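User: two proteins, same treatment. go.

Assistant:
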Amino acid sequence: MKMKMKGKHVILSLVCLVLGYMMAFSYHLTQKEKASTTITNNQWERDLELRNQLIAQEEKNRNLQKELHEKQNKVLDIEEQLSQEEQLFFNLAEDTERFRMYLGKVKVKGKGVEVTLKDGEYDPDEANINNYIVHEHHVFKVINELYISGATAVAINGQRLTSNSYILCNGPVIEVDGFQHPAPFVITAIGDPEVLSSALNLTGGVKDILVSENIEFSLVEKEEVIIDPILGT
């Protein structure tokens, strides 16, 4: 009887020991899984926070990029406006220089021609000596033909002519805007040399008329003609 009771106690002790071990193992496993779950949750929250920060940064970058494009477009508009203004100022400067040239306010130079008019040789048999002298209408014929042919500037004996210039015959000299010039009269003009010379040399044109009136006429094409500004104020 005692042996049986003792055997039962041994078996019961073994059972309790096994149960205790199983409970301890189960508790340890539960704590480990709980700790693993806690780490996983913390990591997920951290990843979520980093993802949200990344999204916010990308949105900020897009806004900054959009703002940059807007400013670049403004810069392009300003550059285009400045370019147009620069072209406008350049055109105004060109117009001003051209008007100054037409008004005779500045020295000009360029290709052109040089026409010389001299009194003809005196013939004792000719009763009227005026038939051999260069008069203002002779000079006018040359000047008008030069302007009609595209001359941009004309001078007589170096004196610049303007749209208001006048020429008067005063005995053996001619008067240009109040300044007297003796013969020979050298008329210089800036323009296309071929066009100007062709216009003056037309058959029955200015040259033929002057020669028929006993005026010595000579014409030279020049690579460079320099004409000073107008005299006076």
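Protein 2:
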Amino acid sequence: MNSTIELLKSHRSIRKFTDQKVPHELLLELIRAGQAAATSNHVQAYTVIHVKNPANREQIAELAGGQTYVATASDFLVFCADMKRPTEAAERIGANVVRGMTEQLLVASVDTALMAQNVVIAAESEGLGICYIGGIRNNPQAVSDLLRLPEHVYPVFGLCLGYPAHEPDVKPRLPVEAVLKEDYYTDDSELVAVFDDAMQTYYGQRKGGNKDTNWSKNLTPLFDSKLRAHMREFLTKRGFGMK
């Protein structure tokens, strides 16, 4: 395997960081690498907020569910899906812009995720650690107000960035046979059962905190309740009407 593939397969979420700061020029290079990601029709429907104010970072840490590493990482970024910039650009040259389409929400969200993953890969290639923070969607309106996000922009997730202060194990992934299918969708329940056994072993032996669980059990909180039921109303109010 080449070094790029090995880097990708070695990804871990880092939640403890040293006091060493990420050089600003390196941060700019990471963002430039992010901008090189694929983007639907070259729309580039994203904006990244570099949250530097310590009080704001503390507040976001609480809004995200008490995730303290939001405040302690060298840098914290909020990746926003942004349809304000491209729709206004089209409007300025005379387009009769239709806003609030579901496809616009999908394009902006996918563009943002692709851009962020490029940033992550570039960061890890420089020895940095990262942790995505989806918890900002627990209180998306409060985060939007804090960051002064305008209509047609919404916060998709945050990203902690810094030099790792611990070395967690690489978490196993589903067997490739479960996610790569030939020609048609096929049942993979047997492969999931095998993976559950592997995850049970992983969690039982994990450095820095083991527990008695597996993959399927960990999914329960996501699907036995209406997770973040506020998101539809929030997105509609921000101009993503999902028409």
